[in-house]
Amino acid sequence: MFNIYGHRGLSSKAPENTIAAFEAAAKVTGLKWVELDVAITKDEQLVIIHDDFLDRTTDIVGEITQLEYEEIKHASAGNWFSSKFKDEKLPTFDEIITFANEYQMNLNIELKGVTGNNGSGLSLSMVQQVAEKLKDLDKSLNVLISSFNIYLVKLAEVHMPAYKRAVIFKAAAFQGDWRTLLDFCGSTIVNIEDAKLTKNRVRAIKDAGYELNVWTVNNKMRANQLDNWGVDGVFTDKADELAHLNS
Ligand code: G3P
Ligand code: MG
């Protein structure tokens, strides 16, 4: 089994984490999964965006957790990529559910670590809302919850235990205590950065009985190599070029 995940949608062809990028991914033959990043506003609305700040991927600036949804809902989330996408807005989580049901796509929901002074309260709200909204997802679809933030993965275990959970690691953050971190939040899946990932490390994780996914892999040869090493899946911005590796 080798899964290709469309990282932030088909983010090489459309602005990341927009409905346009998710729809483009859904149209890739054979692709079954998209990855998306969930953040929360000051007034506890879930929006889909990667960075803590709006600056890079929208036409306004500011920190998501310090702004209310009313202040950001009209921002263009696509004009930075191309004027063709100027009407794309930051998707809400409800729109993601609608998208997934319509296109029958599985969801890897990455919970973004919450910044600012109300982090633990907003984190709890985020997880509770995701759990509640996922009740509207078609039962035939698969969900993988993931985060760099162990607290969020632990909250996911408490509030939506039925869904599989992955802990995400930057290469440099993957240290000898990784199994303790996974055990703490009831996870058996490692999502690791590709940087300098070796066959030995892949084998060590797999031989210990864990699932292993790798991000971000945009090179076909590398994806193929990771597949041969026994990796379970890769996140890619170029799902259109890698989807044929799904097995
Ligand atoms: O979950 C894989 C990957 O999305 C993690 O990194 O920074 O792209 O969200 P990032
Ligand atoms: Mg992500």
From TrEMBL:
GP-PDE domain location: 2-246
Listed GO biological process terms: lipid metabolic process
Pfam families named in the record: GDPD (PF03009)
Molecular-function GO term, any one: phosphoric diester hydrolase activity
InterPro entries noted in UniProt: GP_PDE_dom, PLC-like_Pdiesterase_TIM-brl
PROSITE patterns for the chain: GP_PDE
Official protein name in the record: Glycerophosphoryl diester phosphodiesterase
Organism expressing this protein natively: Staphylococcus shinii
